[in-house]
Design a protein that fits this description.
The chain is an alpha/beta fold. 38% of the residues lie in helices and 20% in strands.
């Protein structure tokens, strides 16, 4: 039996708890969360004893080592403070992305883990998805020759952006982290994983163009539930997002909807949602919030051999999906993780359509990535080999995070090219 503690019992924390609950060889023994309601949930739904539910993470660590591993799923700005004492207490750690909201702290976590010989895996779940696994096998198999450049597009989805990045926990980089880190560290990581080459420089441009007060429609109000004269035609109307959508769903759909669970602390109901829209940030006009993260950004990464990767992040899409296009010397590949279809176009053969949905039975949580990540972490903490071959070990994550930090620095400097070796030297990296 492997015992787990979870720090941060929100959307991701409860997802991990669900996985643990469904596995007979795993047990959830402690939970830390600032919200009392979440601690009650941990007791009622996941069998955690009341004396092992903590509002303050320091109280958890003062209890001694009461589990085999810690899952850190708290807010970005808290990752360093929550992870370092876990390592010092002798815990192995599964750490939600981003590793931390400062590059120095990312490096600090890695160095502490190495010094204490602790295992830290980062939740770069795309590496574990069946979709990207097949893309990687095609590249490694040489079916499109040598990769010359990759175009990755992060279609955030207008509704996801409004929920998480205008009204939600990740709306303000002063409190969390920049958009290019919090949302797109996945993308930098997958690019690095697909290419397995060393990045040398990064340039980026973007900004917050649309979701600002000056673009608020005439007749709009501070909150959507007030007498807003334009809410009937506003795509970002909170009542439409939540209440109208809720009414159209079955009970099972409502309970499994992650947006509703975020809004109502995993106990969605029409009345609770209505109260949240009346009192919380989720009911504010999308043009009148304290958000400052970008709504669009384009980044170019130059690798050691001249290979180029471009990453486009945009809020202005209907679908919430990633699209990748890879250009090689002997063919090209296009794919998206919404349809889970990969189109392979060799220059000297027939086009091939690969439907990932017909090749696996598990497309749950990030295309099966959530489950496969947990499986590998369990194997590792039960005595598996934590070598550099581990797919999402902390060492590899530091490099992908460095690309994200470089992109944000470049954006703030009007697209100036950032040399990654210079960035390493500035933070004391060899």
């Amino acid at each position: 039996m492997t015992d787990f503690a979870i720090i941060g019992f929100g959307s991701r924390g409860t997802l991990f708890a669900g996985y643990i609950k469904e596995n007979a060889n795993m047990r959830l023994t402690a939970v830390v969360d600032v919200c009392e309601e979440q601690l009650v949930l941990a007791q009622k739904e996941y069998g955690v004893s009341a004396d092992r539910c903590y509002r303050d993470y320091r109280d958890f660590y003062r209890a001694g080592k009461i589990a085999d591993a810690v899952i850190v799923a708290s807010q970005d700005a808290d990752h360093y403070a929550h992870t370092i004492p876990a390592l010092e207490a002798g815990y192995d750690v599964l750490l939600e992305k981003p590793v931390a909201n400062r590059l120095e702290d990312c490096i600090g976590i890695r160095d502490k883990a190495n010094a204490l010989h602790r295992k830290v895996m980062v939740c770069h779940v795309l590496r574990y998805s069946h979709f990207y696994d097949f893309v990687k096998k095609i590249i490694d198999g040489g079916e499109i020759g040598r990769v010359i450049n990759i175009n990755q597009t992060e279609n955030v989805g207008y509704w996801h952006y409004a929920h998480s990045f205008i009204r939600g926990n990740w709306r303000n980089s002063d409190e969390t982290s920049p958009m290019i880190l919090q949302k797109c560290c996945h993308d930098f990581d997958i690019i690095q994983w697909l290419l397995e080459k060393t990045p040398v420089s990064v340039s980026s441009r973007g900004g917050l163009k649309y979701f600002v007060a000056e673009n608020a429609p005439d007749g709009s109000t501070e909150r959507c539930m007030e007498n807003c004269s334009v809410k009937g035609k506003c795509p970002y109307n909170a009542e439409r997002f939540y209440l109208a959508a809720y009414e159209k769903m079955s009970e099972a759909e409502r309970r499994s909807n992650w947006i509703f669970n975020v809004l109502c602390n995993n106990s969605p109901s029409y009345e609770r949602m209505k109260a949240a829209l009346r009192d919380s940030d989720y009911g504010k006009c999308a043009f009148r919030c304290d958000n400052n993260v970008v709504d669009h950004q384009v980044t170019t990464v130059n690798f050691e051999d001249g290979t180029l990767a471009t990453l486009t992040m945009t809020a202005f899409t209907k679908d919430c999906k990633r699209v990748v296009r890879i250009y090689g010397t002997e063919g090209e590949l296009t794919a998206d993780d919404f349809s889970n279809v990969i189109t392979l176009r060799p220059f000297t053969g027939e086009d091939e359509r690969i439907d990932v949905t017909k090749l696996t039975d598990d497309l749950s949580g990030h295309g099966g990535g959530d489950n496969r990540l947990m499986e590998e972490f369990l194997t590792l903490i039960d005595g598996g080999d934590f070598s550099k071959n581990v797919s999402s070990g902390i060492e590899k994550s530091v490099m992908s995070h460095m690309m994200a930090f470089a992109a944000e620095e470049s954006r703030l400097k009007n697209g100036e090219t950032i040399d990654l070796e210079g960035m390493k030297r500035n933070v004391g990296e060899d």
